[in-house]
Amino acid sequence: MIPQSAEAAPQGNSRAAAQSHFRTLRPGTPFQPRIDALALKNDWYDWAGYRAPHSLWDEELEYFAIRSQAALFDISPMTKYRIEGPDAEAYLDRVTLRDVTRLKPGRVHYTAWCDDEGFVLDDGTLFRLSPTRFRLCSQERHLPWLLDSAFRFDVTVEEETEAIAGLALQGPTSSAILRDAGFAGVERLKVFDLAAFDHDGASVVISRTGFTGDLGYELFVPAGKALGLWDRLMVAGAPRGIRAIGYTALNRARLEAGLIVANADFTTSEHAIRADRTRMPDEIGLGFMVDPEKGNFNGRRAILEARAGRKLRHVLVGLEIEGNIPAEHAIVYHKKSQEVGLVSAAMWSPMAKRNIAIASLARPYGDTIVDDLWVEIYAMRELQYQKLMKRAKVVPRPFIKLDRRTASPPADF
User: Is domain 79-159 classified as CATH 3.30.990.10?
Assistant: First the structure.
């Protein structure tokens, strides 16, 4: 039944309401007041329903802030789940690929989870905050699936995306900035360590993690304390060149590090419309996570059967491409004639001094056949596109490897 007030609403008012709706900006994160003040380009995109910047002031200089100073990036829109209870470890061991019993309190690991057919639902990071309490961070939302999977486990699963704000502080001066901000002992954190620190009468969890392949940290704080944390970092970081950045710069850094993005470098099984778009862990470089010895987990039988029967259809590879024109979304060919795959991310790398890309290829190409591969690039030449066929070589990822990422303690840049 339609409410009387809705029935009686004049058509003009409905049209005005609709227009007002479309003019309304997407909601911001707890850090939005600070980000808006720095957003000189007003260049926004939709991240999980939040308004997030592609770039704030200059995407090139924002990238170099990561590599030469320290960059502050708002990761609050990342989906976050609090998972706790007596069976939390057993539950997460059942739904994710890696052996959670080996993840000690105060540690983080990168993991993924699959549907019953062994196709990847998503990848993310799992933080073990205590023996019975975890935080799972991911690109997509999975609460109904996580709740269904918790049947008969004594565990509580709650989404805390809005309640917990997050920041990534990445770059060579990041550790020194945290120390100068008063987080004493942060320099003792090794890669994938985490610890809680006092902040404004609350607690901020700092982990030595990130998405850049550089020295860096991620910070999680109650939303009500977010602005105070931002200001604390900005004041301490001013002498060491801290700058806020948008996603474009971060995306370039993650590509150099050889890291993949869900629904960019692979399609998650819940989003795939066509059956041939789904991927198993071994098809996107996540086979190292699969632990056949740990007992049952989602997709185990299908993954192991695909391995045994050599039924894996694709392989995700790193490519080095001749020339300096990025091969964004280029088709990959064998012997310049047979289409064998597609580039999902590409750039000229200032750090590697190479033209690099990540591509998904149909096996055996990229697996047992790695010679005579080419990419088709369309380059703008005097207002006209020119097709270029450039040779591509399969190379290991990451494309760059920075010693400072794992140095313990970090150097005082």
Answer: no
